[in-house]
């Protein structure tokens, strides 16, 4: 009997020792998988992954996967990138001066109030307030289906864009714009990258005109870049806070993502004296500035609060773009962006600079049947000049390569095709500049001229001096009578 019991006990020990670790005990990571072509669910199943979210406008999915299987997933031939689904944070926490600073009251007198323009506020949500109307919304936060604000940040941002002009409380830049609350951040002001991508995906699907992103991260993301590029290519204006990691001295390139991507308008902050906020990010990617120091707007529980940050500056730009779009309904997002930059008051060094970009944004207004620019000829004290709105034609650009992943030493052939967006006809003799950005920064620029069929080809021979990683190919198209056009593509070198 003892022998039998002993045998059973030993068998139990052996069984216990060799029992595999349960799935619940395995360490998992939350990642975003970007595919080269179509989403392949079998690839995820093969590495024991579980899909949380799929996106409509980019070939990517959010996945929970055992940590030990990530390396295997990266080696799959149909996978472009596997990146951590890290958290993104709001770009600022805690007037009237600000509204006047961007000339919004002059726009209202011209009947430009943002009416009919749809603005998606991707943030912590928007809470109920007597002085604000929310046209609709959605929540991508895992813990709630409500798009109501439980932080205060999103409500503050929304008030800057579109608080009602009803003689009570405050008034937003575009008081008649249609605001949509897209909750992608939680009560702490943080949110997963996958939720933000879902929010932008939703904004594209629901035909938003403007997307406001008052948050940022230091981390690059292939998936995030693809989705903001797609939104921009679909005609949406994407606005983002440049970030609050600027140095007091104003040195260094501190603009965060997604603001740093070309398809996004990066916004810095100034105070009531039009001086850069000491926290405001700086760098070549900074496009414009707006009020962002001690700005009064809505808060939770029907209250008001002063807050500072580039988070507050970005919605001033979104509101101003709503006014511009209402004033110029036939212009493309590229043309409206160009007007925004051209009408900005030049601050700091002459021309575009690292501290103020093109300068302080200004709202459009009507006088003698023309839109005025409030941009002075030389100084802030100068007289305003008229800006005649001449509608230029728009280009359509396709940049392509034979594949998306290359080995060291391979030759990369890059082809660009330029056509008229309206007529679809090729544009010959367009000046094309290809800029190549490696993981460590810009490598080179190559110039070419489009042939009679609108094509131009470029040759890039990679060497061992080229660092491994993701390369961004950006084409800039210039042609008389057309707006400057841009297109980007990402390839991988390993």
UniProtKB/TrEMBL annotation:
<dbReference type="InterPro" id="IPR036852">
    <property type="entry name" value="Peptidase_S8/S53_dom_sf"/>
</dbReference>
<dbReference type="InterPro" id="IPR037045">
    <property type="entry name" value="S8pro/Inhibitor_I9_sf"/>
</dbReference>
<dbReference type="InterPro" id="IPR022398">
    <property type="entry name" value="Peptidase_S8_His-AS"/>
</dbReference>
<dbReference type="InterPro" id="IPR023827">
    <property type="entry name" value="Peptidase_S8_Asp-AS"/>
</dbReference>
<dbReference type="GO" id="GO:0005576">
    <property type="term" value="C:extracellular region"/>
</dbReference>
<keyword id="KW-0645">Protease</keyword>
<feature type="domain" description="Inhibitor I9">
    <location>
        <begin position="42"/>
        <end position="90"/>
    </location>
</feature>
<keyword id="KW-0720">Serine protease</keyword>
<dbReference type="InterPro" id="IPR023828">
    <property type="entry name" value="Peptidase_S8_Ser-AS"/>
</dbReference>
<keyword id="KW-0378">Hydrolase</keyword>
<feature type="active site" description="Charge relay system">
    <location>
        <position position="123"/>
    </location>
</feature>
<dbReference type="Pfam" id="PF01835">
    <property type="entry name" value="MG2"/>
</dbReference>
<dbReference type="GO" id="GO:0046872">
    <property type="term" value="F:metal ion binding"/>
</dbReference>
<dbReference type="Pfam" id="PF00082">
    <property type="entry name" value="Peptidase_S8"/>
</dbReference>
<keyword id="KW-0479">Metal-binding</keyword>
<dbReference type="GO" id="GO:0006508">
    <property type="term" value="P:proteolysis"/>
</dbReference>
<keyword id="KW-0106">Calcium</keyword>
<dbReference type="GO" id="GO:0004866">
    <property type="term" value="F:endopeptidase inhibitor activity"/>
</dbReference>
<feature type="active site" description="Charge relay system">
    <location>
        <position position="153"/>
    </location>
</feature>
<feature type="domain" description="Macroglobulin">
    <location>
        <begin position="398"/>
        <end position="487"/>
    </location>
</feature>
<dbReference type="InterPro" id="IPR034202">
    <property type="entry name" value="Subtilisin_Carlsberg-like"/>
</dbReference>
<feature type="domain" description="Peptidase S8/S53">
    <location>
        <begin position="114"/>
        <end position="359"/>
    </location>
</feature>
<dbReference type="GO" id="GO:0004252">
    <property type="term" value="F:serine-type endopeptidase activity"/>
</dbReference>
<dbReference type="InterPro" id="IPR010259">
    <property type="entry name" value="S8pro/Inhibitor_I9"/>
</dbReference>
<dbReference type="InterPro" id="IPR050131">
    <property type="entry name" value="Peptidase_S8_subtilisin-like"/>
</dbReference>
<protein>
    <submittedName>
        <fullName>Peptidase S8/S53 subtilisin kexin sedolisin</fullName>
    </submittedName>
</protein>
<feature type="active site" description="Charge relay system">
    <location>
        <position position="311"/>
    </location>
</feature>
<dbReference type="InterPro" id="IPR000209">
    <property type="entry name" value="Peptidase_S8/S53_dom"/>
</dbReference>
<dbReference type="InterPro" id="IPR002890">
    <property type="entry name" value="MG2"/>
</dbReference>
<dbReference type="Pfam" id="PF05922">
    <property type="entry name" value="Inhibitor_I9"/>
</dbReference>
<comment type="similarity">
    <text>Belongs to the peptidase S8 family.</text>
</comment>
<dbReference type="InterPro" id="IPR015500">
    <property type="entry name" value="Peptidase_S8_subtilisin-rel"/>
</dbReference>
<keyword id="KW-0964">Secreted</keyword>
